From TrEMBL:
SUPFAM superfamilies: Bacterial luciferase-like (SSF51679). InterPro entries: Bact_Lucif_Oxidored, LLM_FMN-dep_put, Luciferase-like_dom, Luciferase-like_sf. This is LLM class flavin-dependent oxidoreductase. The keyword Oxidoreductase applies. It is an enzyme of class 1 (oxidoreductase). Residues 354-364 have a biased composition (Basic and acidic residues). Keywords: Monooxygenase, Oxidoreductase.
Amino acid sequence: MQFGIFSVGDVTPDPTTGRTPTERDRIKAMVAIALKAEEVGLDVFATGEHHNPPFVPSSPTTMLGYIAAQTERLVLSTSTTLITTNDPVKIAEDFAMLQHLADGRMDLMMGRGNTGPVYPWFGQDIRQGINLAIENYALLHRLWREDVVNWEGKFRTPLQGFTSTPRPLDGVAPFVWHGSIRSPEIAEQAAYYGDGFFHNNIFWPADHTKRMVELYRSRYAHYGHGTAEQAIVGLGGQVFMRKNSQDAIREFRPYFDVAPVYGHGPSLEDFMDQTPLTVGSPQQVIEKTLAFRDYAGDYQRQLFLMDHAGLPLKTVLEQIDMLGEEVVPVLRKEFAAGRPAGVPDAPTHASLLAKKESEEVTVA
């Protein structure tokens, strides 16, 4: 099982000091967070994609390529690649380039994003969001697997005899997660292709997450990719820790109360009760995260949001230290205990390459 960090890259004033980081500060902070993730033994760093203030990560592959040059183990990913408003040809080429630069230490998560105005900025209609996601990914899937593509669809100009470059490393397409909080069509899409399904397990109660994951698992089995238990599932989550839970709540409350995503709504206590948000001691984080398995089953990837809502970089790095030293080692051990033998590990370039070579030998 993989554990890691994801960031949405928001530029938010620190409510306790009034200081707002510059865009440069925030970009450099995301890099520092990724490097800290590798230092403490985490597996994954993922960045979002946004094209509007108050967010900075408009070019995920640029950032991830820079991080790749400074890391050795870390899997580099996205917490959203906008399949609806990016040209699938550009996605194919950008991420294949990253795959080569990172020696295969990468994957990506497709999503529609949560910023409505981005659609007209890139010449698209938000009312076509689901249709764009389905058609664009169908093309992207082919671009990575066919050397020459002839294609015609509704939302972009046709392709005739087109080859995207560079070709995927070792002839293996990057692994794709399809991320969705609320759309069953995306769970269906992930299942159809035998890809991963990532539920950003932050805002919604457990019963909603359970329904979405179960839909994906059942359809994964329906399409013949394996049993429901073998489907590839990832979950998000947000935590804030101090050794004493009351200290954690006292320190995090002002950040929660004005957070761009969930501030000015339910109280911190209500939000923790109704969603996976955990603010407390490391042991409380361990217990709540382990409970995700009760409704999502044995899964492959757990990513934590640590740097949202104006938290200063020093605090975030302290949080990652605690995560790596006190939380993740226990989670690894406990999640491994009783894990059925048939449940696969999270896909990596090495495992996908081994599978490809095995299939080629079988065919030969």
